[in-house]
C-alpha cells in the first residue's frame, strides 16, 4: 500500500509539473531588462507576481546598463550578491508558475572582463603580402556593471569555452537553474578571422589561403575569386558552427540548461546554427506594413535603415526546428513596432499572427523593464520600444492579448508540421555574390532580406511558393545528409515528413550534396530541379575536376524516374500530388499542421482582398472553426460542388484570425441550401453621447455632451494631453418588430485604443483589436430603449507630450539613455496629439 501511495504521489507531482510546464510555454514570455542589476528581492517578487497575474509564462533576464543616481545599488554581474538575487528570482518564479531564461552575458554579444586579447574577436589584415591577425577591439554593447569588456572570438572554441568557465564557478552553484541560456543575434562587427583560421582553412579546404591571396582580395568577380571566397565563407560558417554554437550548446546541456539562440545576422548557414539549438529564435523588428484597413503604421519608422519583418526569414528558425524535432520556436517580438508610448494592442496582434503563420509558437515580448515600486512614472525604460510593463498604457488590457496568444500557442505547440515541400538553401550561390557587410562577409540578417535573401532565385521561389499556397521548409547541405526515407518515398526528419525535395535554380552545389540527392532519389524520393541542374562544384580546390564529376553525376541523376528538371515548377509540383491551398490565392495567410487524425489550419487575413467566400481546402473532412479571441467553436458551412470539390465557407475580414480543424472522413459534411450571409446594418448609433474623463493623467473632470463622435483631444487644450479612460453613454431605440432572440454584432468602427462595453447594464466584452466588434448575445437587446456604455482607454503618448516637457529628468539612463524610433534623442514635447476615444461609426449589424 505504501509503495502504491508513493507511486501515486510521484505520478501526481509529475502530472502537475508537466501541466505547469505546458502552461508556461503556451503563454507568452517577456524580455526583462535589469538596469544596472539594481534589483532587490521585494521588487522582484512584486513584479513576478504582476507578470503571472497578467498571463505571462516566463521572463528572460538581460542584465543591462544602469540608471543615473542608483550607482550605489548596482550589483556587479555574477557577484555573490547578484547570484543571491538571481536565485531568489528563480525560486519566486517557480512559486508563481513562471519560467526563467538568462542571457549568458550582459548586453550583447558575448564578452566581458574575463575576455583577454588572445580570446577576443579578430579580423584579417594583409601585412607584407600575408594574411595576419588583428583585434577588432569591439566591446560588449549595452554592458551591465560587471559585464564590460572585449567581445569573445565566436570562431574559436577554446576562447568560447574559456569564456564560459566564468559561469562554471558561479551560476552552476545555484540550487535552482534557469530553464535556458540565451544568445542574441550575431552582432560581432567586422570579425572575419581567428588565430587558428589559416590552419583550419588549410585542413578543411585542402590548400593554403595565402597561396590564393590575389583571388581572395579580388573585387572584380573573377571565377577564381568567387571559388576562394566560397571557401572562406564556408570556413567561417564551419568555425562558427563548431567554435561557438556547438561549444556553447554542449556546455549548456552538460550543465542542465536548454539553449535559445538567435542565429540570424551571422556569416554562417542559419539552418545549421539554428538546428544545434534547443529553441531556435527569430526576430520581428519593426512593422510589416500590412494593408489592413484601419491599421496604423508609425510614419517615422525608417524602413530603408531598419528593414521590415519577413516570413521567409522567420522560416529559417522554424525549418530547423521541424527538421530536428524541436517542439518550440521562439521570436523576439515587436521590437520598435512604433515609437515609445505609441504602440497599441491592435498593432501587435497582426505581427504575432504573421509569426504564427511562419511556424513560430513561442512568443517573447520585447519587452519589460525591472522598475522599483517607488520610482515615479513612467519608471525605468529600455531604449527601444515596445514597452509592455505595468506602467504601460497596454497593461490594463494586457491579459487579453496574452490570453489570445496562449490559446493559439497551446494548439500550435502540440501539433506537428504538415509541409509537403523541402526547399534546398543554396548558400554557395549567395557566397558567390559580393558581400555587403563589414569585413567583406555575408551576414544573414532578418532585418534586410532584400539585401541577401530575396534577390536569390531561392528567395524569389520562396515568395512564389507562399503566394501560391504551398507549405514548405528549408534544408541545408548538412541537414539534407541526415534525412531518411519511408516506404512511400517521403523524406523524414525530426517531426516532419515531406513529399518532394525542391532544388531552386542555382549554379553551385557541393558534390557531396549532389551525391546525397542521388542517394535519396534512388530510394524513391521525388526530386525537382528548378530550370536546370547546378553547373559547378563549390569552392576552389580541384574545382574543374570536381565540377566535371558533378556534371556527369547530374546526367546519371536525370535518368532516374523520381528526378525531374522542370521549367514550370508549380505545374510539376501539382502533378506530383503536392498540395497547394486556395487560401493563399484568396489573400489569406496560413499554416497547416497535424494533430493525430486532424488537420489544423491557423488562418489570418493580413491584407484587404478577402472578406468572405467559398474556399477549397486540401483536406477533406468534417470542419470546425475555433476563434481564439472568443474561445468559441462552431461548425463551418460546407458544400460539394458540381465539379466534385469540397468547399468551406470562410468569413474572415482583414485583421481577423482563427483555426480550422478538419477531421478526416470519407465525405465532408454537406449542406445543400446556403443560408444568407446578411450583415446589414439594423441600427446606426449617432448619439448624442454623454462623455466624461475618468482615471488617467493628468486628472480631468470635464463632462460634456458630444452631438457626434470625435477625438476627445479636441474638447479642450488639457484634453489633448490626457492619457487614460473616457466614459461614453448613449441611449437608442430599436423597432418593436426586431427579433431580439437572434445574436447581433456591435461594430465600434475606429477605436483609439481599447473599448470596454456594457449594454443595458451587462458586460458585453472588450474590443482591443481590429475589427473592434463584439457579439451581442440573444435577448441582450431590448425592443425600444437601450443603454450603451463604453469605457475607452487611449495611448500614453499624449500625456508624454506634457510630462516630457515638465519632467525631462526621467530620462536618466546610462549608455544610449532613451531614443526615439530613429535613434535620435527622445523628445515627446514636439509630438502632435494622437486621436483618442471613440471615432466610430458605431453600428449594430446582423450577425453572420
UniProtKB/TrEMBL annotation:
InterPro entries the record matches: Galactose-bd-like_sf, Ulvan_degrading_GH
Residues in the signal sequence: 1-19
Keywords associated with the record: Hydrolase, Signal
Keyword Signal in record: yes
Pfam families: Glyco_hydro_106
Gene Ontology MF terms in the entry: hydrolase activity
SUPFAM superfamilies linked: Galactose-binding domain-like
Superkingdom to which the source organism belongs: Bacteria
Protein name per its UniProtKB record: Glycoside hydrolase
Amino acid at each position: 500500500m505504501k509503495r502504491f501511495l508513493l507511486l501515486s504521489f510521484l505520478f501526481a507531482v509529475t502530472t502537475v509539473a508537466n501541466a505547469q510546464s505546458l502552461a508556461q510555454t503556451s503563454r507568452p514570455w517577456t524580455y526583462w531588462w535589469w538596469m544596472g542589476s539594481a534589483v532587490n528581492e521585494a521588487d522582484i517578487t512584486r513584479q513576478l507576481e504582476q507578470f503571472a497575474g497578467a498571463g505571462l509564462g516566463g521572463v528572460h533576464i538581460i542584465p543591462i546598463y544602469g540608471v543615473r543616481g542608483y550607482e550605489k545599488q548596482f550589483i556587479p554581474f555574477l557577484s555573490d550578491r547578484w547570484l543571491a538575487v538571481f536565485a531568489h528570482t528563480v525560486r519566486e518564479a517557480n512559486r508563481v508558475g513562471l519560467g526563467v531564461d538568462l542571457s549568458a552575458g550582459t548586453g550583447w554579444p558575448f564578452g566581458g572582463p574575463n575576455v583577454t586579447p588572445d580570446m577576443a574577436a579578430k579580423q584579417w589584415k594583409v601585412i607584407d603580402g600575408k594574411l595576419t591577425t588583428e583585434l577588432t577591439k569591439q566591446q560588449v554593447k549595452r554592458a551591465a556593471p560587471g559585464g564590460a569588456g572585449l567581445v569573445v572570438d565566436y570562431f574559436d572554441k577554446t576562447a568560447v569555452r574559456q569564456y564560459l568557465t566564468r559561469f562554471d564557478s558561479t551560476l552552476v552553484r545555484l540550487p535552482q537553474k534557469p530553464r535556458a541560456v540565451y544568445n542574441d543575434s550575431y552582432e560581432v562587427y567586422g570579425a572575419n578571422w581567428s588565430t587558428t583560421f589559416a590552419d583550419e582553412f588549410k585542413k578543411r579546404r585542402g590548400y593554403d589561403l595565402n597561396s590564393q591571396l590575389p583571388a581572395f582580395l579580388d573585387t572584380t568577380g573573377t571565377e577564381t575569386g568567387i571559388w576562394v571566397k566560397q571557401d572562406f565563407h564556408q570556413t567561417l560558417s564551419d568555425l562558427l558552427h563548431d567554435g561557438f554554437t556547438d561549444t556553447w550548446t554542449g556546455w549548456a546541456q552538460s550543465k542542465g540548461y536548454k539553449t535559445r539562440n538567435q542565429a540570424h545576422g551571422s556569416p554562417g548557414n542559419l539552418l545549421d546554427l539554428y538546428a544545434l539549438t534547443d529553441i531556435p529564435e527569430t526576430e520581428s523588428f519593426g512593422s510589416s506594413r500590412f494593408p489592413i484597413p484601419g491599421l496604423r503604421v508609425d510614419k517615422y519608422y525608417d524602413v530603408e535603415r531598419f528593414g521590415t519583418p519577413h516570413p521567409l526569414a522567420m522560416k529559417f528558425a522554424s525549418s530547423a526546428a521541424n527538421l530536428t524535432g524541436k517542439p518550440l520556436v521562439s521570436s523576439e517580438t515587436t521590437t520598435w513596432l512604433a515609437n515609445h508610448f505609441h504602440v497599441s494592442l491592435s498593432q501587435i496582434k497582426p505581427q504575432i499572427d504573421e509569426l504564427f503563420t511562419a511556424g513560430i509558437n513561442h512568443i517573447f515580448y520585447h519587452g519589460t523593464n525591472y522598475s522599483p515600486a517607488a520610482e515615479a512614472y513612467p519608471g525605468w525604460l529600455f531604449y527601444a520600444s515596445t514597452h509592455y510593463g505595468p506602467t504601460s498604457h497596454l497593461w490594463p488590457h494586457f491579459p487579453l492579448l496574452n490570453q489570445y496568444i496562449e490559446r493559439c500557442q497551446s494548439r500550435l505547440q502540440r501539433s506537428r508540421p504538415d509541409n509537403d515541400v523541402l526547399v534546398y538553401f543554396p548558400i554557395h550561390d549567395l557566397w558567390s555574390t559580393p558581400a555587403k557587410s563589414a569585413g567583406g562577409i555575408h551576414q544573414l540578417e532578418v532585418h534586410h532580406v532584400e539585401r541577401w535573401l530575396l534577390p536569390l532565385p531561392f528567395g524569389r521561389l520562396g515568395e512564389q511558393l507562399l503566394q501560391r499556397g504551398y507549405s514548405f521548409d528549408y534544408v541545408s547541405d548538412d541537414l539534407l545528409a541526415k534525412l531518411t526515407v519511408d516506404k512511400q518515398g517521403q523524406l523524414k526528419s525530426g517531426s516532419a515528413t515531406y513529399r518532394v525535395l525542391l532544388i531552386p535554380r542555382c549554379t553551385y552545389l557541393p558534390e557531396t550534396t549532389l551525391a546525397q540527392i542521388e542517394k535519396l532519389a534512388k530510394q524513391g524520393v521525388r526530386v525537382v530541379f528548378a530550370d536546370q541542374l547546378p553547373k559547378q562544384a563549390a569552392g576552389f580546390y580541384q574545382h574543374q575536376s570536381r565540377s566535371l564529376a558533378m556534371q556527369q553525376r547530374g546526367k546519371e541523376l536525370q535518368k532516374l524516374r523520381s528526378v525531374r528538371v522542370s521549367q514550370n515548377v508549380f505545374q510539376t509540383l501539382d502533378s506530383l500530388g503536392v498540395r497547394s491551398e486556395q487560401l493563399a490565392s484568396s489573400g489569406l495567410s496560413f499554416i497547416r499542421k497535424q494533430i493525430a487524425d486532424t488537420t489544423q489550419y491557423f488562418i489570418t487575413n493580413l491584407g484587404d482582398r478577402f472578406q468572405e467566400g467559398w474556399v477549397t481546402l486540401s483536406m477533406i473532412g468534417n470542419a470546425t472553426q475555433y476563434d481564439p479571441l472568443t474561445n468559441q467553436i462552431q461548425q463551418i458551412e460546407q458544400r460539394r460542388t458540381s465539379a466534385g470539390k469540397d468547399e468551406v465557407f470562410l468569413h474572415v475580414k482583414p485583421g481577423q484570425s482563427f483555426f480550422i480543424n478538419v477531421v478526416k472522413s470519407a465525405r465532408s459534411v454537406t449542406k445543400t441550401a446556403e443560408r444568407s450571409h446578411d450583415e446589414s446594418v439594423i441600427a446606426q448609433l449617432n448619439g448624442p453621447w454623454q462623455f466624461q474623463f475618468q482615471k488617467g493623467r493628468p486628472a480631468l473632470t470635464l463632462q460634456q455632451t458630444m452631438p457626434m463622435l470625435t477625438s476627445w483631444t479636441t474638447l479642450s487644450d488639457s484634453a489633448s494631453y490626457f492619457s487614460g479612460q473616457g466614459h461614453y453613454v448613449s441611449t437608442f431605440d430599436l423597432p418593436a418588430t426586431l427579433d431580439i432572440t437572434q445574436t447581433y454584432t456591435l461594430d465600434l468602427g475606429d477605436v483609439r485604443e481599447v473599448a470596454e462595453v456594457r449594454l443595458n447594464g451587462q458586460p458585453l466584452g472588450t474590443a482591443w483589436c481590429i475589427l473592434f466588434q463584439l457579439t451581442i448575445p440573444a435577448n441582450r437587446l431590448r425592443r425600444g430603449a437601450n443603454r450603451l456604455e463604453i469605457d475607452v482607454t487611449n495611448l500614453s503618448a499624449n500625456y508624454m507630450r506634457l510630462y516630457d516637457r515638465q519632467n525631462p529628468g526621467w530620462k536618466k539612463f546610462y549608455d544610449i539613455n532613451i531614443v526615439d524610433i530613429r535613434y535620435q534623442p527622445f523628445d515627446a514635447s514636439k509630438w502632435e496629439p494622437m486621436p483618442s476615444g471613440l471615432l466610430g461609426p458605431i453600428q449594430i449589424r446582423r450577425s453572420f
